[in-house]
Amino acid sequence: MTEKYTALYEAHKRLGASFTDFGGWQMPLKYSSELAEHKAVRSAAGLFDLSHMGEVEVSGPDAGAFLDYALVGKLSAVKTGRAKYSLITNNDGGIIDDLISYRLAEDSYLVVPNAGNADTVAAELSTRAEGFDVTVTNVSAETSLVAVQGPAAEAILLELVPAEQAEAVTGMKYYAAATVGIRAGERTLDLLVARTGYTGEDGFEIYVPNDDAGTLWSVLLAAGEGRGLIPAGLACRDSLRLEAGMPLYGNELTLDTDPYAAGLGPVVALSKEGNFVGRSALEARKAAGPARRLVGLKGSGRRSARSSYPVLSSDGETVIGEVTSGAPSPTLGFPVALAYVDEAYTEPGTTLSVDLRGKPESFTVVELPFYKRSKQ
Amino acid sequence: MSKVNAGLRYSAEHEWVDSSSPVRVGISAVAADALGDVVYVDLPAVGDTVTAGETCGEVESTKSVSDLYAPVSGEIVEINQEAIDNPALLNEDPYGAGWLFTVNATAEGALLSAEEYAEKNGGDL
């Protein structure tokens, strides 16, 4: 596969980023220290380039009905200006991707799949659109995405928003989106700003045409300088989302994952009218109940469980599950992990063991998320 | 670019050894940078015997874990408690305060000169 570069690649190089491949893209892993970046997002703000994420426009009179058929959620019930987390599954109910859809107008949605799945999702949506009066357009290649995440995110964004539009930002609810003017020198960029994120903090994701991505990045860096904002890479994005108990496609979610096992049952709208792709398989899966479920694990020692490590019963005799993500939590100071374990071991408080490269270590099942920000 | 300290020799697994006696051992800046922020170090105990080329501990960062290989054989004389208590020293000063342990070396594994190691790993001498 040819490596792909975001419109901000040169800006990252100038900031001294080290890069990693993610979903076929060369993305900044970290700029200085991933721990410092993690802490900045929890205490002030971090600036992320998420341009590897996909963007697929769905428009036309049948847009809502089409997404009700193509995705597991009831997207037609989403109000204009609001967003919804959903899944696209195959006929067997296996997860092709998890995605966020924004309703931009009565007959227009923006669907945002993960980087590595963008082409697959765009192709699936096009195939599923047959018979609906909709147009599906993959605009991923032209669209950049920049996120400001952290408790200082709103104040930083407000530095750049014309006073008469400030209320569009301050009044914006979580999982809402609106077009907002962002001052960039002499110009004002009218951009889609969403109060969404993947860090467990307040924050905004801003969709921007590639040509203006560098400008937006620079003005946000400058506006945040006095408020503790630093550029933040994918390493801390992963530890932040893990603390927030959010699944990562490829780790917690795969084509073999049952949404009910992943704790995403509420995302599947079996009550909506009409057929949708995966419905009968998902009905059967719900009725049967998953054999294993995704749980949070808290480590008692200093060593962390990592993806693919076996989970054992506390006596170490029986393999009862597998770790999908794990790391030392920078905020909490102990190891945390997500793992699929047999139903009988999912009760919070249950003590388990994880095989850490041949040495068993004790872990306890805990409620998710591991970290929840305090509401102001 | 990660720094390679000219006065040291290196194992292929990124440990450095100095020329003192007992020899002092640590991990290179190349390794520390690749690991990311080190949060946990597991070292052999004083009095343990380590064997060149075999694992003798591990270094864990926020995003991954790596085995630590003994670059020389012999008995562990001293371990760096400060590095255990503050693993960030491995990132901040891998050739200095972030040293790991000292060994009464009876044999050496295959060690590279600083020039050879830098050439192989793209480090800055």
How would you portray this structure in words?
The complex is a heterodimer of chains A (376) and B (125). Chain A is of the alpha+beta class and 376 residues long. In chain A, 22% of the residues lie in helices and 34% in strands. Chain A contains nine helices and 20 strands. Chain A has a six-stranded mixed β-sheet, with helices on both faces. In chain A, strands 15-18-17-16-19-20 form a six-stranded antiparallel barrel. In chain A, a hairpin with an 8-residue loop joins strand 12 and strand 13. The longest helix of chain A has 15 residues. In chain A, 48% of the residues are buried. The model of chain A has no long low-confidence stretch (mean pLDDT 97). Chain B is of the alpha+beta class. In chain B, strand 6 and strand 7 form a beta hairpin. Chain B is globular. At the A-B interface, helix 2 and helix 8 of A face strand 4 of B.
Number of β-strand runs of chain B: 9
CA-atom Rg of chain B in angstroms: 13 Å
Mean pLDDT score of chain B: 94
Summed up, the helix count of chain A is: 9
Strand order of the largest sheet of chain B: 1-2-3-9-8-5
Which range best describes the helical content of chain B: under 10%, 10-25%, 25-40%, 40-55%, 55-70% or over 70%?
10-25%
